[in-house]
Amino acid sequence: MRTFSPFKTTLWYATATPAPDTTRLQGTVDADVCIVGGGYTGLTTALELSQDGFRVVLLEKEEIGFGGSGRNAGHCTPTFTHYSLPELRKMLGEPWAERLIVRQTRANDRVSEMIERYQIQCEWQQNGYVMGASYPGMMKTIEEKVRTYNAVGARTRVLDRGEVETVTGTRRFYGGWLHEEAGHLNPLSYSRGLARAVIQEGGVIHTNSPVTGCQRQGSGWVINTDRGKVLADKVIFATGAYTVGGWPKLDQTFKIQKVFVAATQPLSDDERRSVLPQNTTIHDGRGDIFVYKYNAEGRIVASMFPMGRRGRDMDYTRTVMSDRLKWLHPQIQQDICWEYFWFGELDMQYQTVPRLYDLAPGVVAVTGLSGRGVPTGSMLGGILSEWAKGVPRHDLALKLEPLSVAPFYMSYGPQLALRYYRVSDWIKTKLAGAPLPPHA
């Protein structure tokens, strides 16, 4: 059985708003729709359906937000990471590509609407996202991003060298891509706020209720837990990377990719005036990704992928992160202390977009978010609730497909890709005569 990294040592667990009161499932309950998984995808699906009067029961093996929805870095950028929009259209085909592009690029509209409507206290800041150009040649890629994303209604623009320094507080970028609609938040507080909203709308949530099986019963389904069962017309599995049992081979539809997140001590007021002065989320634009932003206490929260010694040797890992941050922001004079450090798991699949699986009549699952947690999980609730309401499969924004096991190469493919991007970035930066960060 899969084991997952510790949860209660994260910054978010230490600082999140309290969880709503929930209980373990006992006995038998009835529902129109049973949802398995208490992360963003399951919670937003439950919220959409509860708002429309459906009887919803949500089952969570651990506690709300235990998975990626409670341990991610808190970025909420409504984009696609690996593939450009033209590449997605070619890979997914129409109408699926355009439908998914619309949902993903407008996902923050839904996030901000839910936060406002239900008064979710989650440190929500919608001040934008900047991807820096680490060498001059990256500006062509950025200009193409602006063209393609703005063509579908996003608000993005090119920053020149002076503008990007004003926004980010670093002189290391040759320009940048500003996505004005992006934001950041406390991910666990957001999860718990969504759970409160579900309960407010009449939905039922049972935590500490692991699903042990799902069997056909008449025209519906019986979903068994260790101490009870749900009788439902339809079932939605929304357990992502933290899938354990529930449906045969569902945990084989993706491969796990680790990511780590760390948080510094709070920076001084003087440092905050010059480091990320506009409280944006920053991606340093390198193939070896370093993404960072503030939390409400003024801590820098940064994330990277494990690679070689990094992620295994904790002292070395902290040194790498400190050196990268100070290289970007030499105005940080104090020694950096990474007071929180934790790991999360991503459900990776080769398309790097969610896959919607038709498991049986009245049963679906979605996996493969591939690291796009906050906006993607939040918008998936709309798609899954439409399925539950009976929207025809050819009208959904994700294509329903048979369950398929992730190919073997996905066990090592993401790590090889990360190493390729790192080397490619190093070569392009050196050829451009641009400086490289320590440990590049």
Topology:
Layout lengths: L10 H5 L11 E10 L3 H12 L4 E4 L8 H4 L3 E2 L8 H8 L3 H10 L1 H11 L11 E4 L5 H14 L4 E4 L1 H8 L7 E4 L3 E2 L2 H14 L3 E3 L4 E7 L2 E6 L2 E10 L17 E10 L4 H6 L6 E3 L7 E4 L5 E5 L9 H15 L9 E11 L6 E6 L2 E5 L5 H16 L11 E2 L11 H19 L9
Parallel strand pairs: 1-2, 1-11, 2-8, 4-13, 11-18, 17-19
Antiparallel strand pairs: 3-7, 4-6, 5-6, 9-10, 10-11, 12-15, 12-16, 13-14, 14-15, 17-18
Please supply descriptive tags for the structure shown above.
440 residues; alpha/beta; FAD/NAD(P)-binding domain; D-Amino Acid Oxidase, Chain A, domain 2; nine-stranded mixed beta sheet; eight-stranded mixed beta sheet; 13 helices; 32% helix; globular
Question: Describe it for me?
Answer:
The protein is of the alpha/beta class and about 450 residues long. It folds into 2 domains: about 10-75 and about 190-255 and about 350-405, 3-Layer(bba) Sandwich (FAD/NAD(P)-binding domain), CATH 3.50.50; about 130-180 and about 265-335 and about 415-430, D-Amino Acid Oxidase, Chain A, domain 2 (2-Layer Sandwich), CATH 3.30.9. About 30% of the residues lie in helices and about 25% in strands. It is built from 13 helices and 19 strands. It has helices spanning about 10-15, 40-50, 70, 85-90, 95-105, 105-115, 140-150, 160-170, 185-200, 270-275, 315-330, 375-390, 415-430; strands spanning about 25-35, 55-60, 75, 130, 155-160, 175-180, 185, 205, 210-215, 220-225, 230-235, 255-265, 280-285, 290-295, 300-305, 340-350, 355-360, 365, 400. Strands 1, 2, 8, 9, 10, 11, 17, 18 and 19 form a 9-stranded mixed β-sheet that branches. An 8-stranded mixed β-sheet has the order 5-6-4-13-14-15-12-16. It has a two-stranded antiparallel sheet with strand order 3-7. Strand 10 and strand 11 form a beta hairpin. The longest helix has 19 residues, at about 415-430. The radius of gyration is 21 Å and the shape is globular. The two termini are about 35 Å apart. This is FAD-binding oxidoreductase. InterPro entries: FAD-dep_OxRdtase (IPR006076), FAD/NAD-bd_sf (IPR036188). Pfam families: DAO.
